[in-house]
Amino acid sequence: xxRRSIRLLGYTTAVTGIAGYSIHRGLNHLEEKxxxxxLAAGSRALRKPQNPDTQRCAYTDIYAAQIPxxxxxARVPNPKAPTQTELEYAWARSVIGNKLLRTEGSLFGLxxxxxxxxxxxxNSEGGFSPDKTTGAPRIxxxxxxxxxxxxxxxxxxxxxxxSSKLPDEPREFFEKIARWGYPWRLMSSLRHEMSxxxxxxxxxxxxxxxxxxxxAHDYELVDAExxxxxxxxxxxxxxxxxxxxxxLLSSY
Length: 252
Fold this sequence. Notes:
Order of helices and strands: HEHHHEEEHEEEH
Number of helices: 6
């Protein structure tokens, strides 16, 4: 191999190794700072698959961060005496409208409508409520999310719940090659839940709330793969990156 090619290979390997190590360290830091919460921290609706007869909720990830109550109160219409529901709406709008999801929504808008805009982020007059004319669920971020449950909708409510269905074509492709021995598959749909705890006192720091961001993934049940523990899902490293995205959103 020519010396120039060897040198280029060495540089490429070094850069890749440093980048990979940096990402690994960053993920470790986030995982230590925001440990995952138990399943009971989310609602029953979060972990219920869209089609229980043909799907299973393979995993649920729930993360939380403590923020000053005043920071959330500043985002409600009546900041002097906000209700718990108003705080949940404010947190949901903060998450849906953050830079990461706005960018994803804008990219969807560019592909679908040739316009780089996130479209509805829950800040419109209708908020997260169903369409007044048709009664259809509210669609957010150019179709990325569909509102499944409003904050304070029922006794089991843990804030806003949104869902997203992935296209059938890529899922079916990976299901096909999984039957040939490929070790992973894609999910069918996912849900996100955004909730806020009751305010609590932190000694010497004032009033705080715990804000949470949760995610759950549904997979098709494949009889040939056996029991739940043998059902294939996405690769572990992809799942870890997705969990990191959830962690970043919970700490927004």
